[in-house]
Design brief:
This protein is an alpha/beta fold. The chain has one domain: Formyl transferase, N-terminal domain (Rossmann fold, 3-Layer(aba) Sandwich). It is built from 6 helices and 7 strands, in the order βαβαβαβαβαββα. It has a 7-stranded mixed beta sheet. β2, α2 and β3 form a beta-alpha-beta unit. α1 crosses α6. The radius of gyration is 16 Å and the shape is globular. Bound molecules: 5-O-phosphono-beta-D-ribofuranosylamine (GRF).
Length: 185
């Protein structure tokens, strides 16, 4: 059995898509879902799947490094084979990144384009005719680790709502697949 931990900050639709996909898995277990935001809607989604939820609020720490140290201490006992970032709105320091063998993230753009915050908005507003989603390994440089999966779509003529729906549809399909591929091959 491989253990995964999912980190999230908000709505948690990716968390839910992964939980649904792995619900009956005999190979992979979500041992914990951690959030830095005690009001995150993802907490309700995680509980629906009986996933253990940890809340570690960054506001209780003076520095990024102190927070990351506490995060590592909290997560190590879960012995994660993989850490999955699913809308975790924190820049992680090497204290966290170098503590785990494998950390992955999903980003709503065709990296290396539109790194950082508000990627969907910036991708939508650009005059590019294509947009997409990237799953990548987390490294010490923001949104820059090795690309593990990427899918694009024709974005011309789409409304903001259609654009968002397309991003979500791709995310919810490819993220569970990458997780399974990484842990069962
Ligand atoms: C997703 O769009 C993901 O690409 C980005 O944060 C968002 C999280 O959405 N990193 P949700 O909380 O999973 O609905």
């Amino acid at each position: 059995m491989k253990n995964i931990v999912i980190l999230f900050s908000g709505n948690g639709t990716n968390l839910e898509a992964i939980a649904k996909n792995l619900k009956d898995s005999k190979d992979i277990k979500i041992v914990c879902a951690l959030t830095n935001n005690k009001n995150a809607y993802g907490i309700i989604r995680a509980k629906k799947f009986n996933i253990k939820v940890e809340i570690l609020e960054h506001t209780k720490f003076k520095t990024r490094k102190e927070y990351d140290k506490a995060l590592v201490e909290l997560l190590k006992p879960y012995k994660p084979d993989l850490i999955v970032l699913a809308g975790f709105m924190r820049i992680l320091t090497p204290i966290f990144v170098d503590s785990f063998e494998l950390i992955i993230n999903i980003h709503p753009s065709l990296l290396p384009l539109f790194k950082g915050a508000k990627a969907i908005e910036r991708s939508f507003q650009s005059d590019m005719k294509a947009a997409g989603v990237t799953v990548h390994q987390v490294s010490n440089e923001l949104d820059s680790g090795r690309i593990l999966a990427q899918e694009c779509f024709n974005s011309s003529g789409l409304t903001w709502e259609e654009f968002n729906n397309k991003i979500k549809e791709i995310e919810h399909r490819i993220y569970p697949k990458v997780i399974r591929d990484l842990l069962t091959k």
